[in-house]
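Help!! Second protein's tokens look totally different from the first
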Amino acid sequence: MIARDIGMQIVSGRYRPGDVLHGEIETSGRLHVSRAAYREAVRILAAKGLVKALRKIGTRVTPREEWHLLDPDVIGWIFEFEPDDETLASLFELRRIVEPEAAALAAVRRSEADLQAMASALTGMARHGLESKAGRGADQAFHAALLRATGNAFVASLIAGVGAAVTWTTFYKGTHSHHLRDSLPDHRRVYEALASRDPAAARAAMTELVDLALRDTTAARRRMRNGKKTASA
């Protein structure tokens, strides 16, 4: 909880790169936590690349390029606050670079067990809907199964980061939309291409899925901003 609070202050810009966090004694007293709990929070943030402890200086916020932006907690903190345009665009650029090629590779290498995992995820998405936590979990499971199906350990290592990006962008769209577009047909097209062992179709279907997700997220963001303008008028 302490790491989350400080982490959100960092990713939101309240603490900027180069800023030195308040001292251990002062901060633990202000937050009404033990010094050990505060030190553990700093350790967690350091492991995520957000801060660095420097002797005789203190704990300093690191430059953004040193942050582990694909860490699920860091992505979550960014979306709990409000991602800026550049961050959102960069996140979808990453998905567009990784996921279509991963889908093409998975179409060649996937096993029956991989297909079963994706089919189960599709069933969960249909049963629960993406408005629910269970439905978003099924969506995340689909993308994780696809990355595992590439048979490439380096690609599979992106599961946590890509999964968090999928979950949080879906949550963001749902929060700022009156009606969340049903993306289940998009996922089914990817699944069918993998089942048919058609890498070109898998690449095209995944590219379309990511592009539509970006369109939906952009539209949700526009509605959110228009709502704020209306409320302040």
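Here's the second one for comparison:
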Amino acid sequence: MKFRISILGAAMAALTALTPTSWAAPYKTSFGPTTVDISTGHAGHSSIPKKMGYWAADNVEVDVFGAAGAVAGLQMVASGKMDFITVTAEALMLAQAQGMPVKAVYVHARSPISKLVVLKNGGIKSVKELKGKVVGMPVLEASSAYFGGLFNDNGLKFDKDVKLIATGTGAPAALALQRNDIAAWASWDTAVASLENKGQEFTEFRPAFFDDLVGNVIVTRNEMIEKHPEVVIGVARGIAKAVHFGLANPDAAVKIHWEVYPQTKPQNADPAAAMSEAKTIFVSRFASYKLPAGMLYGAARPEQWNTMARLMRESGAPLPASYDPKQAYTDKFIAEINKFDRTAIEGQAKGWKESQ
């Protein structure tokens, strides 16, 4: 009898060692975009990995909730009130320079989400023509590496050669453009897309160095990196799978988002019009997730971080000369994050049915 019990115990121990995630409770963690409006553009790090079970496959249970801006979100991560957040590379480096124990573990948007736009029929054909005019921003920023660099690229100073005013987003910004209260709008991709859904057509101005930058990154505390690397990998891998799914089938991605966040679905609207508007928002962000040839999800080139740091200093951001951009990120998890079958994810996306 004792012999049989010991054999059974050994067998159970071996099985547990082979399949730890099937026995362990999911690790409960949290993730936040820096907005309380979790639109279809945020589906890759909210609804899709939840609905498709990508986070669950790595034994993590992720509570997604929005933070009111990058500063507040980074403070929540640094203090342990949230584990992961997505912010611009600029916001991350400023936080590190101020002593916050945070680091990027995954490059999410592969290009800047910032946009400088003018009305297509407004008569302005170049950034240089904005000198002396009024430029609107959703919220005034003390400095901006992207917009500062864009204006420098055209022989102007963003904080001196134009007058900056806060417009908010949505209808107030649309009205300001329509009435010519502002000549241009310096905003971000999904906010611009929402105005396009209202019928406004834009011309976007980009700097020559656009492809040398990184956009949004996923950030966590140094403590999470050191003590819970499997959670870092699980959260980021779920997002990588979700992005791959969304790029393969945008319509399915939008419908999944509506299911998980029903309040984001347009009410009393023609179904085709609702899908068209939602996809405009979706594509505005997911376009920045597409991988260049030979790149892995979450990876970036070191020179992209160096360029961002240089632009920040040139724009007047309080980034010390001694700050080394190498400390902004770690790429030690990238290989593990990319260990999934892309073809299988594409098959899931293309074969997805609304009743799933």
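Reply: Different proteins will give different token patterns, so don't panic. Residues 1-22 have pLDDT under 50 and may be disordered.
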